[in-house]
Amino acid sequence: MEIRKLEGVIEAILFTMGESVELGKIASAIEHDEDTTRKIIRQMMVRYDEEDRGVRIIELEGCFQMCTKKEMYEYLIKIAKQPRKFVLTDVLLETLSIVAYKQPVTKLEIEKIRGVKSDHAVNKLVEYNLVCEVGRLDAPGRPLLFGTTEEFLRRFSIQSVEELPSLNPEQMENFKTEAEEEIQLKLDV
């Protein structure tokens, strides 16, 4: 099959599926190895960008997805019902960052870090599809474990959680000192 035909097949797969598709499944469908398939898709990604198309292909942890470019949003809302906007409050962002950096994590672990109940925050993040249940901890009560989703990666424009910025040791010491001072204040009261 010639390259243009292969690109057409890949484009049809990604367009039709709507969600991310594993590289292996795409490679199997076009009857090529994963390295060749990845090269074809990445060439498509570059060409879409160079041609300033309204869609783009993104990579999410070894999967690929076709999606609309962010710059097209204002035009889309003119003809479609305006999408529901999710508001990420400070509480939600704090909870989301704990899940992102500590995953898989239980609600109890989140609450220990935050110092307050986190049921509402975790439930909202699940509703927004930024966090999901990823299993159960092998401990008494078998508490749920939470982790981030592909939607989280899409919203924050990263390919994997390894791309999250790391905190430098000095920041970690400052956070630890602040937390210890806060705990001491509560004990003194």
UniProtKB/TrEMBL annotation:
GO cellular component terms given for this protein: cytoplasm
Annotated Pfam families: SMC_ScpB
Gene3D superfamilies in the record: Winged helix-like DNA-binding domain superfamily/Winged helix DNA-binding domain
Residues forming coiled coils: none
Localization (cell): Cytoplasm
Protein name, as recorded: Segregation and condensation protein B
Record carries keyword Cell cycle: yes
InterPro entries for the chain: ScpB_csome_segregation, WH-like_DNA-bd_sf, WH_DNA-bd_sf
Signal peptide: none
Taxonomic path: Bacteria, Bacillati, Bacillota, Clostridia, Lachnospirales
Chain's role: Participates in chromosomal partition during cell division. May act via the formation of a condensin-like complex containing Smc and ScpA that pull DNA away from mid-cell into both cell halves.
Source organism of this protein record: Extibacter muris
PANTHER family: SEGREGATION AND CONDENSATION PROTEIN B
NCBIfam families: SMC-Scp complex subunit ScpB
